[in-house]
Design brief:
Uridine Diphospho-n-acetylenolpyruvylglucosamine Reductase, domain 3; 2 domains; 10 helices; 14 strands; FAD/FMN-containing dehydrogenase
Length: about 350
């Protein structure tokens, strides 16, 4: 997606790109696409106008509103189970600059930072998309001295409105959280927006789980912070993303994206040895970390599900009627289940 960001920037335009520029545009978009402009502009997949797809019978098909409409619906949020997408056409938005980046809080000094961020999200405008990531920073050279070896809450902000408005919003946040150990906030060209989450670009195998939530309870936040902290038996990175805004509005002719009414997304991720197989205990830890949030859970998100997923996990990404429809689309275009994805949708039974 980073190549699309760079090309669009030359014309004062931006795609609805995600937090990591190195992620492929097609895989990101087919899963829905919750990006840096999500609350202002909605899901990336809602901007898709046309897809070229090779289906299991070897045919190159064009999926758009007037051609292969059921395939077009299924691809837009249903993932990669329906064919090999060789081209996507999607709309861009006029945007040159944003205000944002990261605020880093030492949770030993600001233990209420995550709950304070959650309270702050109740009053921000749709132009503000934000998240918070929890991780224990490695005690190694290259990590800023104030953060080294500390349990950190990294608040990520992308404000697609006037920079001064963004600064006022951040001052309101800091009035709740206290002073961050480090701030990288600034006005920037959208082509630099990968700095907002500042995610590692080195290839690595990961496993993750997630929950879409209708709300956040402060007691559950405290448990999440504690369970994903320095005492966790496996290295993990937990995160919360603020949803709502344009994400909650269903456009005309919408695709298969599920649970649009979710207010937050919680995720937990761990690196794994991709050569050895298994997850090294990450799955058990992830379930324990997310367990305090299950009372508010609406379902799951394809985009934040790394590694092989079970049928139950995938079905939880959709309303029951939409999942049945996806299975019927799979049966129509790949009845023998030849195209396998990490997020598999099996064909509906024949007859």
């Amino acid at each position: 997606m980073g190549q699309v960001v760079a090309a669009a920037a030359l014309h004062g335009l931006a795609p609805l790109s995600g937090s990591m520029p190195g992620v492929g545009a097609v895989s990101y978009t087919l899963g829905g696409g919750v990006g840096l402009l999500a609350r202002r502009c909605g899901f990336a997949v809602d901007r898709v106008r046309r897809a070229e797809v090779v289906t299991a019978d070897g045919r190159l098909r064009v999926a758009e509103p007037g051609s292969e409409p059921e395939l077009f619906w299924a691809l837009r949020g249903g993932g990669g189970s329906f064919g090999v997408v060789t081209a996507l056409e999607f709309g861009l938005v006029p945007l040159r600059r944003v205000f944002g980046c990261g605020l880093y809080f030492d949770l030993a000094e600001c233990p209420d930072a995550v709950a304070a961020w959650a309270r702050w999200t109740h009053s921000v405008p749709e132009e503000t998309t934000s998240a918070v990531t929890l991780l224990v920073m490695p005690d190694v050279a290259g990590v800023p001295a104030r953060l080294r070896g500390r349990h950190i809450a990294q608040v990520q902000i992308c404000h697609a409105g006037p920079a001064e408005q963004g600064r006022r919003l951040v001052r309101k946040l800091e009035a709740l959280t206290g002073t961050p150990a480090q701030s990288t906030l600034r006005e920037m060209d959208y082509s630099e927006s990968g700095a907002v989450f500042d995610e590692p670009d080195t290839p690595q195998g990961y496993r993750s789980q997630n929950l879409l939530l209708d709300s956040l309870e402060e007691g559950a936040i405290e448990e999440l912070v504690a369970r994903a902290g320095p005492g966790a038996p496996v290295m993990c990175v937990a995160g919360l993303r603020h949803l709502g805004g344009a994400l909650a509005r269903v456009p005309e002719g919408a695709g298969a994206v599920g649970h649009r009414g979710a207010a937050y997304l919680a995720s937990v991720l761990s690196p794994v040895d991709s050569e050895g197989g298994g997850d090294g205990g990450a799955g058990d830890l992830h379930r324990r970390v997310l367990e305090p949030l299950t009372a508010q859970a609406m379902g799951r998100s394809l985009n934040f599900m790394f590694g092989p997923a079970s049928a139950a996990d995938v079905s939880a990404c959709f309303a029951a009627a939409d999942y049945r429809r996806l299975r019927e689309a799979k049966a129509a275009y790949d009845p023998e289940d030849r195209i396998r994805a990490n997020h598999p949708i099996p064909p509906a039974p024949r007859g």
